[in-house]
Amino acid sequence: MRAFLAGAATATATIVILIGLGGYIWLTSDENRSSTASETTFATVTRTVALPDVKAHTKLFEKRIEEPVPGAHVAIGYGLANVIVIDAPDGLILVDTLESIRAAQGLVPWLNELRQSTGKQITDVIYTHNHADHAFGAGVLLADQDNKPRIWAQEQTQARVNEVVGILSPITFKRAMRMFGTYLPNENFENNGIGPRLLSTHSDGFDFVPPTDTVGDYAEVTMAGEKVVLIHAPGETDDQLAVYLPDRSLLLPADNYYHAFPNIYTVRGTPYRDPRKWAQSLDIMSKLNAETMIPQHSQPVLGAAEIHKRLTDYRDAIQFVYDETIRMINAGLTPDEIAEQIELPPHLANAPYLKELYGRVDFAARAVFSGTLGWFSGDPVDLRPPSPDQHARLMAELAGGNDALLAAGQASLAKGDASWALILGTQLQRLGDDRAAELRATALRELAARETASSVRNYFLTSAAEADGFTMPVASISATPDRMLNGIPIDRFLGILTTNVDASAVQDKSLSYGFEFTDAQDYTIRINRGVAYLEDGLADDNVGRLTTTTDVFRAIAVQRRNPAKVLIAGDMQVIGSITGLTTFLGYFNPPLQEN
């Protein structure tokens, strides 16, 4: 076997293994990976000036350290989210840890200075929830101290973090990069609605440290000699933890409050964010009557009356959108009709902390419709529509051909109707007309110039850059330490493989292959006529078996180790033929990438 792998056939075997094993995960790298992110390549985008409200909002996120109450420090502007450090009697309590290794490295000098000035180490870390900007810089912030702190999180958080390697990762990465404007040049970028520029690109590494202590619905614990109340407060995610320090009358509301209309639906795509749960969480926090509130985004809020008013208004806005959407649903309105008509009451719409600078009311209404009734609007036109390509052909025929369709789009732009111009440009694109790109790009820039919600503005501008030829980089884990990757359950890696079976190639095949792990549970991947699924244990009818450790398998899966070299080193054994393994793995494709 070693002679075979060392010979000319090694290249073929390796390529097939990489296609089947390493290529199926969107997180790709190589053995010569770097520990730091590469320089970001920004898109070329025609200058588009942000609206005054958007520009003014940027000032909230200017980089600084504040101490709104003695001993409670908040680092603003070092990344998308705030980092809060509590100087407790017996140590420092760190709340949230930024979005990447790069972001966290920017905060290390200040954190080390705080350690030195107080003579204290971090004894406890709290993740308010699983989003990267709150949890993925922990290893960096803890690297300069010897003691290992307790790390607190809601009991769902670890599983949510594991989803960083998931079946939808390729598309959610692209959509997130558009939404956050990651590749927009500075002259076209303003803010991210809840923070400054996201410090996480395709090549930035993550350094999440797993929780040591988890919380269900409620916990009162002592951290560094201080009483801390941890409250499960579902909202933007189901694993949100609100943090309350009663001796300081200090509330940290996680992402259930920020200085903008809440992102009940995010354009990057997430599971349904139930407004009813979010509203209930705000009620719970409001009843604490805190004197100081330090959100995980935006700036501190002082005074019990002001905090109560903001949390109540926030809660009422969320509840109003939910209830009004349900009322309109019951009146027979479609999602488009609801989105067009729904508006907050004036006293809420005019509140500076409820401006549509991050989330949008119409998006929230659409999410409620989908979350309660699903995709069907109720109009039978939705049930059997023409395919998108057929729709484009029919529109061109109706307009009198591609030239007429293009002329109509250009006329719409001249009249200020960029939305219709974008629709017409998209039809041309589907027809393969090269002139569509310019029409789409111009319409997208026009729409961005009118948009207040940063997520939508950035999405428009990045999409315009893509129409002009910018290609989104492929995500990498080159700077992410093995320690984090090795914490991801092995069944998640295998599960991604099964999702990406080449169904057309195995319509008439039924076979299975075993994966024996010397340090974990064994699995079988079974293919049965177009479907692949994961089984516990090793099946009797497996055509072969791969034996290794979970860490080695992960390293191969993300291309940190060459499978041929692993075989030669004896770190992996194959029972059966190499050809049988490569043939089996060849039935699996990389995740589908968006065109």
From TrEMBL:
Gene3D superfamilies recorded: Alkyl sulfatase, dimerisation domain, Metallo-beta-lactamase domain, SCP2 sterol-binding domain
Domain spans labelled Metallo-beta-lactamase: 80-297
Keywords, comma-separated and alphabetical: Hydrolase, Metal-binding, Zinc
Gene Ontology terms for molecular function: linear primary-alkylsulfatase activity; metal ion binding; protein dimerization activity
Annotated InterPro entries: Alkyl/aryl-sulf_dimr_sf (IPR038536), Alkyl_sulf_C (IPR029229), Alkyl_sulf_dimr (IPR029228), Bact_Alkyl/Aryl-Sulfatase (IPR052195), Bds1/SdsA1_MBL-fold (IPR044097), Metallo-B-lactamas (IPR001279), RibonucZ/Hydroxyglut_hydro (IPR036866), SCP2_sterol-bd_dom_sf (IPR036527)
GO biological process, any: dodecyl sulfate metabolic process
Highest taxon of the lineage: Bacteria
Family that this chain belongs to: Belongs to the metallo-beta-lactamase superfamily. Type III sulfatase family.
Protein name: Metallo-beta-lactamase superfamily protein
Organism: Falsiruegeria litorea R37
